[in-house]
């Protein structure tokens, strides 16, 4: 079994900061890429940021310069530092990972999501 567990969401005022964490646990042999997606009410899920095993990153244009994705390979954990938050960042944020789990089968996994609300 493989699980992705997110934490760190909450309510923050515009201009504030939050740090999301996502820890992968279970029978994991290798993690190739981890990332964050978000889904606002009435909208499709969209990519926020990804980081691959070599450390390369990619961001949605809407968050460039404000969000930073990082990864602790020893802990199988990915982080999303979110600064200068805007009301339009309000969404459920989901962790995503491509990894080799039980039997070295490479699959895509999702976390359960964590709510981020930016409001005064």
Concise overview:
It is built from no helices and eleven strands. The strands form two sheets. Strands 2, 4, 5, 6, 9, 10 and 11 form a seven-stranded mixed β-sheet that branches. The protein has a four-stranded antiparallel β-sheet with strand order 1-3-8-7, with no helix packed on it.
- Secondary structure: number of strands: 11
Write the H/E string, N to C: EEEEEEEEEEE
Q: Total helix count?
A: 0
Largest sheet: 7 strands, mixed
Which value, in Å, is the CA radius of gyration?
14 Å
Strand content: over 45%
**Global mean pLDDT:** 96
The termini sit apart by: 40 Å
What's the shape?
A: elongated
Contiguous runs where pLDDT drops below 50 for at least 5 residues: none
Class from helix and strand fractions: mainly beta
The percentage helix is under 10%
Describe this structure in words.
By secondary structure, this protein is mainly beta. The chain is built from no helices and eleven strands. Strands 2, 4, 5, 6, 9, 10 and 11 form a seven-stranded mixed beta sheet that branches. Strands 1-3-8-7 form a four-stranded antiparallel beta sheet, with no helix packed on it. It is elongated, with a radius of gyration of 14 Å. The model has no long low-confidence stretch (mean pLDDT 96).
List the helices and strands and how they pair.
Elements: E1 2-7, E2 10-12, E3 18-26, E4 30-39, E5 46-52, E6 57-59, E7 67-72, E8 77-82, E9 91-100, E10 106-110, E11 114-118
Parallel strand pairs: 2-11
Antiparallel strand pairs: 1-3, 3-8, 4-5, 4-9, 5-6, 7-8, 9-10, 9-11
